[in-house]
Design brief:
The chain is an alpha+beta fold and 273 residues long. Among the domains are: 2-72, 2-Layer Sandwich (TATA-Binding Protein); 106-222, Orthogonal Bundle (Endonuclease III, domain 1), CATH 1.10.340. Helix content is 45%, strand content 12%. It has helices at residues 11-15, 58-68, 75-80, 87-95, 106-115, 121-135, 153-157, 161-165, 172-184, 190-193, 198-205, 213-222, 234-243, 257-269; strands spanning 2-5, 23-25, 32-38, 41-48, 51-54, 138-140, 146-148. Strands 1-5-4-3-2 form a five-stranded antiparallel β-sheet. The protein has a two-stranded antiparallel ribbon with strand order 6-7. Strand 4 (41-48) and strand 5 (51-54) form a beta hairpin. Helix 4 (87-95) crosses helix 14. The longest helix is centred in the middle third of the chain and has 15 residues, at 121-135. The N and C termini lie far apart (39 Å).
């Protein structure tokens, strides 16, 4: 068990922030508790106040989870940069101050956010669970929990489109099939994306079937950690129209816009309009 303290970490907020679809609340009554699957591993996280416990080895924390939870970034410093006269953004940041931008697997985020189009979070989770159970490898965690790793590009490229439909993917089935084949046959260079600038990474992602500007921004932010990415979905567009009719101050927050987007999204998602 690895134990940490951090005032800008809330596993409950991260779980409900719309950036990860393979986190589940465990129902522990003594603390906030979630189980998640990422990078082929299963992890349980428990939290009481600012005290966080990760059920993993120190080695796995150092090599996987520290980066995954972006623990080297000072989110309090980002919040301190918010214009004090922007009361809405200040309130949103205070409300969601435990959210962190996860560093997730690129391939998984490509497929996850293709699935997210015209979809709600509960249904996205179900679609991904079905996809993993049908095409992912089954594993057993050290604590006995059974889970499935995310399907590989090869596994999804070999799926029949009608079988993908059975995972409740609808029209997205073709997008997933064609994207899996594009990645498998290196029509897009996955290795170079991480080192590319935001504009180049976004442009490359737009080559994939079913990836538009919003999906590309989600992938850039939640997989490639391009903090200037600012995905605009229904919630964000409503906030921008109502609260920033003259435009959001992107220049002021050019290197942390993605963090602020998450605060705004989470605030609006929870009815704090």
């Amino acid at each position: 068990m690895v134990r940490l303290k951090n005032d800008n970490f809330s596993i409950a907020q991260i779980c409900r922030s719309g950036q990860c679809f393979r986190m589940d609340i465990l129902g522990n009554k003594r603390a906030e508790a979630i189980g998640l699957v990422a990078f082929g591993k299963y992890l349980e996280v428990f939290q009481e106040g600012n005290e966080i416990s990760l059920d993993c080895t120190q080695e796995d924390y150092d090599h996987i989870w520290k980066s995954y939870f972006d623990m080297d970034t000072d989110y309090a410093k980002i919040i301190s940069r918010i214009d004090a006269t922007d009361s809405y953004l200040m309130s949103a940041a205070a409300f969601g101050s435990g959210i962190r931008i996860l560093r997730q697997d690129l391939w998984e985020m490509i497929i996850s956010f293709i699935i997210s189009q015209q979809n709600h979070i509960k249904r996205i989770r179900r679609c991904i669970r079905l996809l993993c159970e049908r095409y992912g490898e089954k594993r057993v965690a050290p604590n006995g929990v059974e889970y499935y790793v995310f399907p590989t590009p090869k596994a999804l490229s070999q799926a029949r489109i009608e079988d993908l439909y059975a995972c409740n993917l609808g029209y997205r089935s073709r997008y997933i099939y064609e994207t899996a084949n594009a990645v498998l046959h290196r029509e897009i260079n996955m290795e170079k994306l991480a080192g590319a600038c935001y504009a180049d990474a976004s442009r490359e992602l737009l080559k994939l079937c079913g990836v538009g500007a919003k999906v590309a921004d989600c992938i850039c932010l939640f997989a490639l950690h391009k903090m200037e990415a600012f995905p605009k979905d229904t919630h964000i567009n409503k906030v921008l129209a109502a609260r920033y009719p003259n435009g959001f101050p992107f220049d002021r927050y050019h290197d942390c816009g993605g963090v602020l987007q998450q605060y705004l999204f989470f605030y609006h998602l929870n009815g704090m309009s």
